[in-house]
Amino acid sequence: MLVWLAVSLGDVHALNSATRVTQAKTVPPRAQIEQGLRDASRAARLHPGDTAPMLVEASLLYEEGRPHAAAAVLEQVIKKEPQNRDAWHNLAIVAYQFDRRLSRVAAARFLRLDPQEGRD
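Now predict its structure.
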């Protein structure tokens, strides 16, 4: 938390901009996705220990139709934070398009980390 207090307004703007693109209700235009990717990349460079920009980048890559690239970024997040439920959950979704075995493994790991999720 102290790291975020030390960031500049421009850094916060870059991450917020990238996050807004991923939270849009409709698929944003390609230019917005590209800008979001640049902003997420900048935020990741400025704060290499923080995985939030990487999660945003993976989401944008997936929205852009690049599930393999999104999975690669999510796997980097998981290497840094093996207990990151969001990364495992997103990897299960992304990998379903090209590797059902990886998708099942990721889903199982997510459910072990968040057992309440599977009870609905």
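The chain has one domain: 2-119.
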